[in-house]
Amino acid sequence: MSTALRYPQKFDLTGTQAVVTGGESGISLESARALAQCGARPILLDRDPAALERAQQALRDENGSTPPSVST
User: Fold this and answer.
1) Cα–Cα distance for residue pair 1/51, rounded to 1 Å
2) Which helix (H) or strand (E) holds 30?
3) Residue 4 falls within a domain, yes or no?
């Protein structure tokens, strides 16, 4: 079970945006999950466009919405 699922009751980030660097995996992807669960719109940054696509798909499957992704 993702630890991100513990936070929606504690924080209401509805209407906010959050930039997550290295957002394609690891703690960055987990942070994006937690932020999305709390209502924020995570903006993922990474150098690997293919990895960002995978991260987007994972978040889309979990939350029903797609965060914007930016590749550098």
Assistant:
1) 22
2) helix 26-37
3) no
Q: What is the pLDDT of residues 5-35, one digit of tens each?
A: 665 667 888 999 999 998 888 898 888 888 8
Q: Is residue 39 part of a domain?
A: yes
Residues shown for the chain: 72
Looking at the whole model, is its pTM more than 0.90? no
CATH number at residue 64: 3.40.50.720
Do the domain assignments include residue 56? yes
CA dihedral 26, 27, 30, 36 (to 10 degrees): -130
| Residue-number span of the structural domain to which 62 is assigned | 16-71
Q: Which residues pair with 72 in a beta bridge?
A: none
E strand map for the chain: 17-21, 41-46, 69-71
Bridge-partner residues for 43, per DSSP?
19
